[in-house]
């Protein structure tokens, strides 16, 4: 973390990018174990990470 900050890289942004990349490629059970989130959250992230924008927009409207 300190090494990243020394080079001017935001740690939170780097973590968020890693999570987004992993969610798109890994099964939810792996995401749950890897990042320490609950199974429900991991499944919800996987659902949001799908390729279809239509499903993403519908999910956003459903959560508002």
Describe the overall structure.
The chain has 64 residues and is an all-alpha fold. It is 77% helix and 0% strand. The protein has five helices and no strands. Helix 3 crosses helix 4 (39-48). The longest helix has 15 residues, at 11-25. The protein is globular. The protein starts with a helix and ends with a helix. The mean pLDDT is 79.
Percent in strands: under 5%
Overall outline: globular
User: Based on DSSP secondary structure assignment, what is the total number of beta strands?
Assistant: 0
Rg, please? 14 Å
* Average pLDDT, all residues: 79
Q: Main beta sheet: strand number and arrangement?
A: none
Distance between the ends = 34 Å
What structural class should be given to the helix and strand makeup?
mainly alpha
- Secondary-structure element order, N to C: HHHHH
Report low-confidence residues grouped into runs of 5 or more: none
Please estimate the helix content.
over 70%
Helices, by number, come to: 5
Oligomer: single chain
Q: How does the SSE layout of this entry go?
A:
Elements: H1 2-6, H2 11-25, H3 28-35, H4 39-48, H5 53-63
Quick take:
Helix content is 77%, strand content 0%. It has 64 residues and is an all-alpha fold.
Please give a handful of descriptors for the protein shown.
64 residues; single chain; globular; mainly alpha
């Amino acid at each position: 973390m300190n090494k990243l900050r020394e080079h001017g890289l935001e740690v939170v942004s780097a973590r968020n990018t890693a999570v987004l990349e992993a969610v798109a490629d890994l099964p939810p059970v792996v995401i749950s174990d890897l990042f320490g989130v609950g199974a429900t959250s991991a499944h919800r992230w996987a659902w949001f990470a799908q390729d279809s924008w239509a499903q993403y927009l519908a999910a956003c409207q459903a959560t508002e």
